[in-house]
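Hey, quick one: can you model this chain's 3D structure?
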Amino acid sequence: MQPSLDEIQAAAEIVYADMPPTPQYCWPLLCECLGAEVWVKHENHTPVGAFKIRGGLVYFAHYAQSEVLKNGVVSATRGNHGQSLGFVARRYGVPATVVVPYGNSVEKNAAMRALGVELIEYGDDFQSSREQASRIAQERGLHMMPSFHSLLVTGVATYSYELLQAVRDIDVVYVPIGLGSGICGMVAVRDALGLKTEIVGVVSAHARAYAESFASKNVVESHVSTKLADGMACRVPEPDALEIIWRGIDRIVTVADEEVATAMRTLFECTHNTCEGAGAAATAAAIQERTRIAGRKVAVVISGGNVDRNVFASVLNGEHGF
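Sure thing. Here's the predicted structure for all 322 residues.
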C-alpha cells in the first residue's frame, strides 16, 4: 500500500529532526547540454551522501518504543542502505550488523565501519548477502531490517515531496531503481498531490531484473554484471515494489555502464557534484532520451554520491572502458 500524504508529511517531521531538506537546483550548463529545463534533486547532500537515510530514520522511529530492536539489527547492502542503518542505529544506541558482498566499495565499507557497524563480507552479489543476513538474524536473534519496506518507502518519499512541492509542473522525472523504495516513494507523492508528472524508472543494462519484470508483468530474476552502478545491482526484484511500479510509472530505461560514466562526467562538468554510478543513472537516461525531452521541464534524482576515489578518477579520465 502506498503511503498517504499525511503519512509522508509526518515522516518529513521525523527526517528533519536529523537533517534539513536537500536542495533541487536547475543548473544552466546541464540544461544547455540536454536542451531542456533540468532540475536536479540532490540526495547526495544528506549526512550519509545518499537518500537511504530518510527511510532508516522513519523505520527506527516506528520501532523505537518496541522490543523489536533490543537485541540489535542486521541487514544487507551494497553500501548506502548500510550507512543509513549505521547512522540511525548509532543514534538509538542499537547494535548493527551489515552484510556486504565480496569486492564491495572500499570507501562505503569504511564509512559503515566508521558509523559503528559490524561489517561482514559474504557472497558474490547483494542477493547472496541478503540471504546470509537473514540467516544471521535467526542465529543471533537479531531484527532483520529489510531493504524494501513500507516504512522505508514512506521515509524516502520525503525527497519526492520536497521536489514536487518546490518545482511545479514537472513533465517527467527520472528515478533510479535499486530495490525500488525511491521510485515507489515518487509514485506515492505524485499520486497524493494529484499531479500528471511522468515517472520513468532507470535500471542498469547489466542488472535488468526490474526492466524485464516490468515488461513481462512477472517477477523475473536476472544476472547482474554492472561494474559501475552497484546501487542498482539487483538480481531478484521485490514483488511489493513491482506492484507499485507496474501501475504507477510510464516506462523503464536501461543505461549501460558507459552511459552512466558519461553522465557522471557530465554532472561533474556541469554542476561539480560527485555522483556514484546509481546516482548518475537518472541523468544517463535523460541524456539517452534527449530528443524525447527537448524543451520540456525535467527532473533527475541524484540518489547518492558515494563513489570510491579511484573509480571516480577512472571515470573522469575515461579509463577502463569508462
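One thing worth noting: The first helix runs from residue 5 to 16.
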